[in-house]
Amino acid sequence: MAETDSPGDHDIDAGAEAGPRRRVTRAEGDYLLLGTAHVSRASADEVRQEIESGDYDAVAIELCDARHAALTRSGELEQMDLFQVLRQGKAGMVAANLALGAYQQRLADQFGIEPGAEMRAAIESSARAGLPLQLVDRNIGITLKRVYRRIPWWQRLSTLGALFASLLSREKIEESDIEKLKRGDMLESTFNEFAQESADLHEALIDERDRYMAARLLQQTGASRTLVVVGAGHLKGLAGYLEAGMDDPAATVAALDRVPPGARWVKWIPWVVVALVVCGFALGFSRDTGLGQQMVVEWVLINGALSALGAAVALAHPLTVLTAFVAAPLTSLNPTIGAGMVTAAAELWLRKPRVGDFSTLKTDVTRPAGWWRNRVSRTLLVFVFSTIGSAAGTYIAGFRIFGQLVG
User: Among 117, 195, 336, 397, which has the minimal tally of Cβ within 10 Å of its Cβ?
Assistant: First the structure.
C-alpha cells in the first residue's frame, strides 16, 4: 500500500521557494518526487540541497539518453555525421529537435536563465555524492514519433508548421510563457496551444511519460530511497501511477517504447500516384504524341521548378538548385528516393560544413538568419524545402495530367 505526504504537500505552488513534492512508499522502495521548474535557479539549488543531505541512495531524473547527452556533452553536435543523418532519413527529426532546442535557448538568452539547470545540478551533485543516476524518461525521438502517429494528418501539418514558424518570429517571449514553463513540462509547453486542444497530443507528451517513468522507477532495484527530479507538470500523474503500482513494469516500458505503425494504405499513396502518372503518360501518348510530350514537359517543369524553388528559398548553392530541378521529376517517380535526400547530399558535397558550423549550431538556430548562415542547418533546410516543393509539384502536375485527359 502506498503512503503519501499530507495533502498540503501535494499542492503545486510555482511561486513558493520550495518546490512541490510528494513521497510514495512501496515495497520496491521509498520515492521522494521533487517537482521542479525547468527555468528556475531556485529549483537547481533545491536539488543540490536534497542530494547533499545524504538522505538518498539514488537519484532519478526526467531525462532520456539523448537529452542527457545533449545536456552533458557539449561536443555531441560536432561529432554528428550529417550524411548518415540524411541517408537514414533522420533529417526532419534532427531539424525538429534543433527547433525545440532553439525555443529553449531563446528563453535562456532573453531572461538570463538556463533551461534544464535543475537536471544538470542533479547530474553533477549525484556524481559528487557517489550516488547512482537513473535516466527514467522515454527517448525524445520515440515521444515525438508517437505524437506524430497519434494525431490526424491535418494537425501534424499545423503543429510542425507552428513549430518552424516560431523560429521566424521576432516577437519576444512573454512572461506568461515563462510561468507556463514553471508549472509544467518543457515539451508540453512548446506545444502548449495544441496540447490544450488535443487529448491525444497531451496523452503522448505527458500521460504516457508519467506511466513510463513510473514503470522505470519500479524496475530499479538496489536503492531503498530515491530522489526523483521531474518537472512540476509530471508530479501528480507520476505519483498516481507509482501509488497504484504495476503488475509488469517491463511490459509497460516495452509497450510505450513501441512506435505505432502508420496506416498501411498511407504507404501505398506514393506508389498509387506514380502508377497514375505513368498511366497518364501512356494514355496521353496513345491518344496523341503531342499530348504525351506536353504532359512530360509539364511534369518536368512543374515538379523540377517547385523543388528548385524550395532549394533556392533555403539559399542552396546554385548547382544544388539545378540538381533539384533535374532530380525532382525523376525521384517523384521512385518513392524510395526523395528529392530532399539528393539535394541535401549535393549541398553537403558543394558546401561541406566546417568544424565551426557544428560548434555554433545550437546558438545559430536561435535566430532565423542563423538557420541560413550555418552550413549544417542550411543543409537541413535544403532537405525540407526541396522535399516540400517536390511533393507539391507531384500533386499539382498530377492533377494537370488528369485534367488534360478528361478535359
Answer: 336
